[in-house]
Amino acid sequence: QLKEEIRRGFARLEDPLAGLLAMLESSSDWKGKGHSLGYCITTELQLWIKAHPAVPQSGTKLKKLQARVLGMLSQCPANLLDPLISIYQLHTADRNYLLEHVSHLYLQGNYKEAAILSIKLKLQPDQDVEKMCTPLLLQDKANLVEEYVAEYPELQRKLLQTLDTWCEPSFNIRDIIRPYQGLSKYKPEKFNCRVLSKLIFRLLGRFNVDSALCPNVINQRHLRTLNYLFYKRFVEKTMTEKNWADHIQSTVGENRWLQGHLVQLLLRHCDTRGAAQWAQHCRVPPEMLPQAVAKELQKLHIQDRVEEVTKADNYEASKKKDYYHLPIPRENIHFLQTWEETLQCWEKVLQAGQVVGVDMEWKPSFGMVGKPRVALLQLALKNEVFLLDLPRLLEQAEAEGEKEKLPHFIQMLYSDAAITKLGYGMSGDLSSLAATCSALKDTEKQMQGVVDLLAVDKQVDGLSPEHSHEEREVRQQEKGLSLLVQHVLGKPLDKTEQLSNWEKRPLREEQILYAASDAYCLLEIYERLCKDPESFGLGSDLTESLVGKQSKKPRAKKQLNKQEAPSPSGQEFQGPRMEPSHPPAPISPQEFSVVCDNMLQGLGRYLRCLGVDVRLLDNEDDHRKAAEIARQEGRVILTSGLPYQTLRSQVGEGRCFSVNCSQKAKEQALQVLKHFNVQVSLGDIFSRCQ
């Protein structure tokens, strides 16, 4: 009835367009959200005009109406913008007049409204992208900034270059902020190099722009990778020398800035002779070396292999016996690079009743743009493992004009319900497979007969009673598949090659054995669980209950944890914590005082809600400030990842706690309260000023 009444009303009006504006200008409800009467009338007029083409006006009269409607657009709800722009033909209005109007909005401080109107009227090519986007970024409106440049590649590049210059080490971000001091909804904590860096990488990925356009953030990311690699090699001691050297060379390359940082790190972790050896190995120009290192370099003879620099190396053969051992002879591991070899593999794999362990390896991305591309596909059968050189095989098939044949076989394997496929965290593997070959993007939807042992891992009970106390201690240091192998087969996987450069050819012997073990252990776990499920707390119908199921938990980002090493600041590393033999005496939140590291601000705020005395580090604070505060004020440090290793050595025993960074604030808080036996009562909640 309302719609009919509206249409009759417009038919009676001499000038329906002027009539609508008069109604909207004098109406009190049209500025509210949702479908107001004003919205209903406006959309009906839009439809009515389509049925009455003679109605739209032109000339001076239309210009006057356009001027009136422009004044209204900055205040009207978002759902009215498109109908009003269409009805009053604003796309045909004088472009300079429109730009002037948007500029007026901008000068009044209506930055969001100016940007939205610019997007709707497609004015971006005639505007200064830095000027338009800066206040939006300060107000934490990155999504609007993305929308602003979405259709304009040139503006995308300009924006990325601008953001990258803000990340220069010598650049003072306060210079950008100064003109906007009185900005409403200004969020300074959201405007720093770390946040900008994340935004740049997101935009590079979304708009598929060459990352060379942003050298500053790329260098900073590479520097974090360098720090992480030095931590893995010299502090954690979990990376082999060859593996480490491969990554150092591919990270630093010919980049002078990174070479300078490499030299500083070498001097921090090695003696002068060691620094000189590695500088030679990584081809650092002699003029970049400090005098003492340069002198040492002159004494060195050219060596085929760099001597071991660190005295404490974890890779003696004696240590290998503590890890899972591949139970098949070396000649049963086949590295396949030609289609003829691969065909023989498929003949054995694609047989009804076959059980296949499937795994994939890719070069760790260390936080760089894009999804990792699979460099090696491992297929394990009883007594045999096939390692498929995926990039080489895909390249070969494309050269022969048959690029679909390898994806076809992989799809046949995954979709055949008669073949049992075993994996661990299959969802992440398959998303990387889809990034490597677009023809495989729907594999996950079509797969049948799969057993994701990650799902089993969640059901498996703790260590069986027969495991010794020593084995229980070792178990605490393992995680993921290695932990499941330790639990079911007695020894963990040796993961020293996990972060290898899997794209480099030829693969080293250690990489080949690691890749084969990763796939073959899946067969042995499955066989053991099927034989004796009850001893691991699983139902006797294991095979029936698991085939076809897969882990729903890890998707996209979390699955990358298999290979994508986080940067030191974000690494989810749980250092071994000594749990007290007796729980501490219960205390109230008022007696418990903590200092939270800057990546745990959410946890800090949550604990404060429960009445705990909390101090939070700012985003710009160095992690070491937490130790100073803890010593001065007698607080417990709450941190996560790599800083835990540094901070716990600077305070007393039990005064530093490593929180799981992947959990939400509530789960973290429960973890902390349980560990320190803090008893929260109803009266403690909101007992402190927030």
UniProtKB/TrEMBL annotation:
<keyword id="KW-0269">Exonuclease</keyword>
<keyword id="KW-0540">Nuclease</keyword>
<protein>
    <submittedName>
        <fullName>MUT7 Exonuclease</fullName>
    </submittedName>
</protein>
<feature type="compositionally biased region" description="Basic residues">
    <location>
        <begin position="550"/>
        <end position="560"/>
    </location>
</feature>
<feature type="region of interest" description="Disordered">
    <location>
        <begin position="545"/>
        <end position="588"/>
    </location>
</feature>
<dbReference type="Pfam" id="PF01612">
    <property type="entry name" value="DNA_pol_A_exo1"/>
</dbReference>
<dbReference type="GO" id="GO:0008408">
    <property type="term" value="F:3'-5' exonuclease activity"/>
</dbReference>
<feature type="domain" description="3'-5' exonuclease">
    <location>
        <begin position="333"/>
        <end position="534"/>
    </location>
</feature>
<dbReference type="InterPro" id="IPR002562">
    <property type="entry name" value="3'-5'_exonuclease_dom"/>
</dbReference>
<dbReference type="GO" id="GO:0003676">
    <property type="term" value="F:nucleic acid binding"/>
</dbReference>
<dbReference type="InterPro" id="IPR012337">
    <property type="entry name" value="RNaseH-like_sf"/>
</dbReference>
<keyword id="KW-0378">Hydrolase</keyword>
<dbReference type="GO" id="GO:0006139">
    <property type="term" value="P:nucleobase-containing compound metabolic process"/>
</dbReference>
<dbReference type="InterPro" id="IPR002782">
    <property type="entry name" value="Mut7-C_RNAse_dom"/>
</dbReference>
<dbReference type="InterPro" id="IPR037432">
    <property type="entry name" value="Mut-7_DEDDy_dom"/>
</dbReference>
<feature type="compositionally biased region" description="Polar residues">
    <location>
        <begin position="562"/>
        <end position="572"/>
    </location>
</feature>
<dbReference type="InterPro" id="IPR052408">
    <property type="entry name" value="Exonuclease_MUT-7-like"/>
</dbReference>
<dbReference type="InterPro" id="IPR036397">
    <property type="entry name" value="RNaseH_sf"/>
</dbReference>
<dbReference type="Pfam" id="PF01927">
    <property type="entry name" value="Mut7-C"/>
</dbReference>
